Amino acid sequence: MGKGKLAKFADMERYENVFQYPYSVVDNVPFEMKGHWREQFFKNDNPIVLELGCGKGEYTVELARLYPDCNFIGVDIKGARMWTGATQALKDGLKNVAFLRTSIEIIDRFFAEDEVQEIWLTFSDPQMKNPRKRLTSTYFMERYRRFLVDGGIVHLKTDSNFLFTYTSYMVDTNALPLLFRTTDLYHHEGLDEETQRILSIQTYYESMWIARGLNIKYQKFRLPRTAELTEPDVEIELDDYRSYHRDKRSSLEKAR
User: Fold this and answer.
1) 246 CB contacts (<8 Å, ≥6 apart)?
2) 207 Cβ contact list (under 8 Å, min separation 6)
3) What gap in Å lies between CA 23 and CA 47, rounded to an integer?
4) Active-site residues: which are they?
């Protein structure tokens, strides 16, 4: 039996690589490290990369191993899940890893202008019924612009055809510089060396989805600060499944 939630929460309170600012405290407890992550926590001048919706933090930890000259911060509101990655990072002595437990809706409260170089969105909830909650919607992209360097890179890795298609429309509609896009990452020929490196990282659920026969889709693009972002006005077929172990939908529908 795994470690209980209360014990995990107790661990998280004392972990030096975890910062917890849920809605219930964020208005009353100032986050003084905004704009000072490098000097106050990482103690270096290396680029900062965020994984938003990091879940158990597996991807954050493995990226940190793969790129020791970058700093990685996993962000999620689920502390009991995040405990896994935070514990592993401490156990392995990874100094380029931190975790922030908060809601992504307020992510811009924790990072200053130009403080972050890249963002990873790994297997985010596609939020098929609520456009505003999609992590590549204009609502969130405008927030990313407040702390991401001008032209900073956004990575999307997903099993969801809906979220991939929606994001593709977002990128194309707004003429965001597209760096790479594939609907089948693990069978795409001619991958550049940088993209091949990320194939070595698979979360538990990603391996389950691959075993189930689902294609893993991936794209990366730049997010300039100039120009107003426009929400794509298109209808997209909904996924006929939500995630591993969940039942398929009985029929396809469409959403904007």
Assistant:
1) none
2) none
3) 27
4) 125
> Do 51 and 60 form a contact (C-beta atoms < 8 A)?
yes
d(CA 250, CA 228) in angstroms, rounded, equals: 38
CA-to-CA dists, residue 93 to 65, 68, 87, 90, 226, angstroms: 10, 12, 10, 5, 40
Q: Where in the sequence is the domain holding 217, given as residue range(s)?
A: 5-255
Q: In which residue are the tokens 């407890």 written? A: 29
Q: CB 83: neighbour CB atoms within 10 A?
A: 25
Per-residue pLDDT of the chain (256 residues; tens, 9 = 90+): 467 999 999 999 999 999 999 877 767 777 899 999 999 999 999 999 999 999 999 999 999 999 999 999 999 999 999 999 999 999 999 999 999 999 999 999 999 999 999 999 999 999 999 999 999 999 999 999 999 999 999 999 999 999 999 999 999 999 999 999 999 999 999 999 999 999 999 988 898 889 888 899 999 999 999 989 999 999 999 998 655 444 444 344 566 6
**Distance of alpha carbon 146 from alpha carbon 108, whole angstroms:** 7
Q: How many domains would you assign to the chain?
A: 1
Domain of residue 13, CATH code:
3.40.50.150
Of the candidates 97, 139, 138, the one whose C-alpha atom is nearest the C-alpha of residue 232 is 138
DSSP 94-113: -TTEEEEES-GGGGGGS--T
